[in-house]
């Protein structure tokens, strides 16, 4: 039977719906491989940043309160996507959609704060992309993370809209699952950004 | 419905109940993980805020350690790497982390020359 036509109940829904079909298994393993590649990509940006950073400028620039707020928002959005996957495994489509929607809202507010932050640095401090080697490496690292957040928002929103009338099935469950993995990975990268870029930029 | 079919349905219903309970239990663990992550974040920010009393030589490795613990939580609980069938994904991630560490070490030390 076509996977899209197959209907389930919470009782017949498989325990790991993301890895039942061959396509799901391939997505799962392929996506983790992609995340490994992303780890190396971000490592190169972190390495460049560490080599080029200017602590005196950093100490003047960074604002602890804003970074803390952004961190809490992104961490919370990571938890809400865990909730979404919890409901996916229990075959509760509407609840899953709702929690992913909350994740998108939190992600969007994180992105808005980041745009505000960059705008603030450029206009109040004259700290633009081309100001110094430090500013270039800073904007490249944090900006690449921000671009990942923006991409993730578009991705999850597209999934929510495309599947709104479709309901949950073994065809789209792996899609939601990989999107949630991606979102957690964004949070993993942010943990190192707030530690290495902001907190280590404020000490000493 | 015959008696034997009813018998067969019993275990699957129990299995479903068991699964539901197990995933509710797991969700509770996720909440604890989240609370711990927020706690570690607050500790890291406080360590930096009180940098005038805590020496920098201690603060930097300390907050890096806290970040690593948070990432382990994120991988093993939020990304379900503690479930079955994650040995290949974790092999990918550990290889990536190994490559990442070497790269950072190289770039940070190369600026000395």
Structure explained in plain terms:
The complex is a heterodimer of chains A (204) and B (113). Chain A has six helices and no strands. Chain A is mainly α and 204 residues long. Chain A is elongated and about 60 Å long. The N and C termini of chain A lie far apart (64 Å). Chain B is mainly alpha-helical and 113 residues long. Chain B is 83% helix and 0% strand. Chain B is built from three helices and no strands. Chain B has helices spanning 3-49, 56-78, 87-110. In chain B, helix 1 runs antiparallel to helix 2. The N and C termini of chain B lie far apart (82 Å). Chains A and B meet through helix 1, helix 3 and helix 6 of A and helix 1, helix 2 and helix 3 of B.
Question: What's this, in brief?
Answer:
The complex is a heterodimer of chains A (204) and B (113). With 204 residues, chain A is an all-alpha fold.
Fill in the keyword field for this structure.
heterodimer; A: 204 residues; mainly alpha; B: mainly alpha; 83% helix; flat
Report, as a whole number of angstroms, the end-to-end distance of chain A. 64 Å
* N-to-C series of helices and strands of chain A: HHHHHH
Query: What distance lies between the first and last C-alpha atoms of chain B, to the nearest angstrom?
Result: 82 Å
Mean pLDDT of chain B: 89
The largest inter-chain interface, given as chain pair and residues per side, is: A-B, 51 and 52 residues
Protein structure class of chain B: mainly alpha
Rg of chain B, Å, rounded: 23 Å
Treating each run of at least 4 consecutive H or I residues as one helix, how many helices of chain A? 6
Oligomer: heterodimer
Residues in helix, % of chain A: over 70%
How many beta-strand runs of chain B? 0
List the total number of helices of chain B: 3
Structural class of the helix and strand makeup of chain A? mainly alpha
Give start-end ranges of low-pLDDT stretches of chain A.
none
Shape of chain B: flat
Strand percent estimate of chain B: under 5%
Q: Helix proportion of residues of chain B, in percent?
A: over 70%
